[in-house]
């Protein structure tokens, strides 16, 4: 913001910022680093140290093992179904909440965040109570030959619940800040509903939408508690990547467990870096206006 | 002008469609499944419900979950304030990278965090060797649970404090400085009260998350009955015994507490907004 001012020859405001003395700064940065070493660097470093303990060949073997590949496939299937459903819902809910005034809006927004306040184990429990073979609805489904709990659909539904708020949560503040002026202007110029959405709203929210979908995918890949309740832990059938990591670990097959976990760490690192880069981009965009 | 804006009409299309789908999807995915807890806990009747949630093992698990989540949230408040302060106020090499890494607990699957801390603090682990020398029990003890929950809750505090710290006007500190306050006085009397609502919000979020956390805890906790069994694990073991009503009763208590936290948070935020007016 200050660059155009400077180029016009306006003298910059010289202002001595009050800051902490150097020893205090060094001490506080040191303490922060110490915390990060204990809680971030050592745990993440440990994953790779353990994963490569028996060398590259063992690492590759652990990752190429058929059960691992089945787990990766199941996780990817879940993500491919859950993320589009929740993204579509997120856009719809954000449109309803930010483009219109209606009573009960605050309550609706609180309800959208509900899954964040629910323990993952409870998230799994509710679907066992609703669809498990010992419940009326579940046993009726069973008679029709449909099995949901302890099979893939159960995993998908539980993940749907856990990742429910992510996209809506990203889009609502963004679209609230953008207001409805542009859409209303388009309307007065004769644009139809889908035209307004496709040509005005969607381009405005595309980064927020993408970002929400990335967070949604990260959680869908990594969800453990909820999926653990509904999966039944059948190897090669209802094992997602985190569940596979758990099974290998509890069999004392640590090296293989950490090898598979290293895939998830790599994914988590990618997620946080993409997030940082995109936030940087957001800020640059908003300061241009 | 303000009068016109207040009664703004809804002229954009698609309200019925988007609102209808929102309510339908919300009900199908969240409301109806969650209500199953009530439908399974309420027919139990008051007496069996009470005896299910006050069984010694269940009570011990509640106590453990609340005390460890509270201690972790307290630690996170201090560590989070420190980190947010350093990231907003100072410039040093690697700062952007550190800032990005704050989100690792959000992005890392909880089971991976769990096996990391369990291995790190095992008797032959990198940190377990050190804690063993000092005679501190971490693995298979409540301390281990606190360690895992500190990791899980930490980003909530940093991410709620950062924007508030960034928006603090330098004039406030400058005038305190001109009036002769030392840096520590300025921090205690001016900055801390100003940051307090955000600090409270962040730590409450960390606390609420800690109560329900499962994946990162079970590996390091050892899950010894009456000693290191957390409340979500009690739900899990009741489910394994097909005790659906018992599991729902334990879950209902946790849910009611989590929802009261959300309401409390909304109240804090309203109070915060009033303060600024």
Give me some keywords for this one:
heterodimer; A: 289 residues; mainly alpha; MetI-like fold; 2 domains; 14 helices; disordered N terminus; B: 277 residues; globular
Which structural category do the helix and sheet elements of chain A fall into? mainly alpha
Total number of helices of chain A:
14
- From the alpha-carbon coordinates, what is the Rg of chain A to the nearest angstrom? 24 Å
The helix/strand series of chain A, from N terminus to C terminus, equals HHHHHHHHHHHHHH
Task: Label the CATH architecture of chain B.
Answer: Orthogonal Bundle
GO molecular function, one term (chain B): ABC-type sulfate transporter activity
Domain ABC transmembrane type-1 (chain B): 62-265
InterPro entries (chain B): CysT_permease (IPR011865), MetI-like (IPR000515), MetI-like_sf (IPR035906), Sulph_transpt2 (IPR005667)
Membrane topology (chain B): Multi-pass membrane protein
Kindly describe this structure.
The complex is a heterodimer of chains A (289) and B (277). Helices cover 77% and strands 0% of the residues of chain A. Chain A is built from 14 helices and no strands. Chain A has helices spanning 2-7, 22-51, 55-64, 66-99, 105-112, 120-131, 136-143, 152-162, 166-178, 181-188, 193-222, 225-231, 241-250, 254-288. In chain A, helix 2 (22-51) packs across helix 14 (254-288) and helix 6 (120-131) crosses helix 8 (152-162). Chain B is an all-alpha fold. Chain B has one domain (47-276): MetI-like fold, CATH 1.10.3720.10. Chain B is built from 14 helices and no strands. In chain B, helix 3 (46-53) crosses helix 14 and helix 9 packs across helix 11 (183-212). The longest helix of chain B is centred in the N-terminal third of the chain and has 34 residues, at 56-89. The radius of gyration of chain B is 23 Å and the shape is globular. Residues 1-6 of chain B have low confidence and may be disordered. Classes of the chains: A mainly alpha (289), B mainly alpha (277). The interface between A and B is large, with 95 and 88 residues.
């Amino acid at each position: 913001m200050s660059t155009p001012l400077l180029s016009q020859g306006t003298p910059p405001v010289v202002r001595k910022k009050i800051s902490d003395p150097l020893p205090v700064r060094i001490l506080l940065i040191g303490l922060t680093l110490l915390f990060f070493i204990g809680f971030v660097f050592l745990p993440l470093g440990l994953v790779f140290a353990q994963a490569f303990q028996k060398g590259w060949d063992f690492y590759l073997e652990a990752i190429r093992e058929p059960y691992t590949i089945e787990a990766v496939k199941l996780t990817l299937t879940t993500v491919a179904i859950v993320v589009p459903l929740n993204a579509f819902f997120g856009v719809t809910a954000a449109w309803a909440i930010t483009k219109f005034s209606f009573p009960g809006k605050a309550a609706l927004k609180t309800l959208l965040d509900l899954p964040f306040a629910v323990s993952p184990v409870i998230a799994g429990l509710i679907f066992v109570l609703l669809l498990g073979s010992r419940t009326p609805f579940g046993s009726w489904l069973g008679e029709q030959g449909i099995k949901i709990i302890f099979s893939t659909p159960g995993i998908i539904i539980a993940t749907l619940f856990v990742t429910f708020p992510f996209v809506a949560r990203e889009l609502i503040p963004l679209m609230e800040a953008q207001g409805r002026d542009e859409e209303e202007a388009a309307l007065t110029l004769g644009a139809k509903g889908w035209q307004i959405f496709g040509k005005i709203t969607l381009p405005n929210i595309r980064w927020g939408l993408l970002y929400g979908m990335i967070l949604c995918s990260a959680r869908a890949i990594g969800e453990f508690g909820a999926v653990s309740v509904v999966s039944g832990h059948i190897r090669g059938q209802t094992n997602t990547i985190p569940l596979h990591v758990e099974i290998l670990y509890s069999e004392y097959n640590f090296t293989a467990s950490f090898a598979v976990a290293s895939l998830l760490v790599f994914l988590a690192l990618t997620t946080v870096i993409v997030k940082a880069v995109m936030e940087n981009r957001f800020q640059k965009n908003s300061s241009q206006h | 002008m303000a009068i016109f804006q207040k009664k703004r009409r809804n002229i954009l299309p698609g309200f019925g469609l988007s609102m209808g789908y929102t309510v339908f999807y919300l009900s199908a995915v969240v409301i109806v499944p969650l209500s199953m807890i009530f439908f399974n806990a309420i027919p139990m009747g008051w007496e069996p419900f009470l005896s299910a949630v006050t069984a010694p093992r269940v009570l011990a698990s509640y106590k453990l979950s609340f005390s460890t989540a509270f201690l972790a949230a307290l630690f996170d408040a201090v560590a989070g304030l420190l980190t947010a302060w350093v990231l907003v106020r100072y410039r040093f090499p690697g700062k952007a990278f550190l800032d990005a890494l704050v989100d690792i607990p959000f992005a890392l699957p909880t089971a991976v965090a769990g096996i990391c801390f369990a291995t790190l603090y095992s008797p032959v682990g990198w940190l377990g060797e050190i804690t063993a020398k000092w005679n501190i029990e971490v693995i298979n003890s409540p301390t281990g649970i606190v360690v895992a929950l500190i990791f899980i809750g930490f980003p909530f505090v940093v991410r709620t404090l950062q924007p508030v710290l960034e928006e603090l006007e330098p004039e406030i500190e400058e005038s305190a400085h001109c009036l002769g306050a030392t840096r520590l006085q300025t921090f205690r009397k001016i900055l801390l009260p100003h940051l307090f609502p955000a600090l409270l919000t962040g730590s409450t979020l960390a606390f609420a998350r800690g109560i329900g956390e499962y994946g990162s805890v079970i590996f390091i906790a050892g899950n010894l009955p009456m000693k290191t069994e957390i409340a979500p694990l009690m739900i899990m073991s009741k489910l394994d015994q097909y005790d659906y009503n018992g599991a729902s009763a334990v879950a209902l208590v946790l849910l009611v507490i989590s929802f009261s936290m959300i309401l409390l948070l909304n109240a804090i935020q309203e109070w915060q907004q009033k303060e600024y007016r």
